[in-house]
Amino acid sequence: MSTWLYQLSTDIWEPERYRLDIWEGERWNWPVGGKSGAGQTPQAGDTVVFFYAPSRGTDPGFYGWAVVLEWFDKSSSPLYFRPTSPSDRLKMDPWWNEEAKALAEDIRGPMKQRTLWMIQEDLVPRLRQGIRAWLASKGA
Q1: Higher pLDDT among residues 132 and 11, named by residue
Q2: pTM of the prediction?
């Protein structure tokens, strides 16, 4: 199973709208623009984490994650997913500190203008630990 980073655009989907519309347990689908995955594609059962970059936004960070339900590898095909815990908590207090910044840089590499990146296996434990530590520091 793989883990993916989906970078949200504040021009299309503002954090306030994300907070209002996205709830754990609901089925969603979003379009995928540019993708980086070394030839891999999202598969049912993979996880995807949602991220707002600091550029052109006022509230950057990791906003939640979901289970991938399906994705058909076509240019117009949306990514189908279901948000899971702790997404409702993260959308209200996104993970954004120096470790989150560094991890986002490591995941995205030099190309920052994509929609979807496959997260390298060695970075997934940093992601999970970072989210857990962030929530613990906030008393969640």
Answers
A1: 132
A2: 0.90
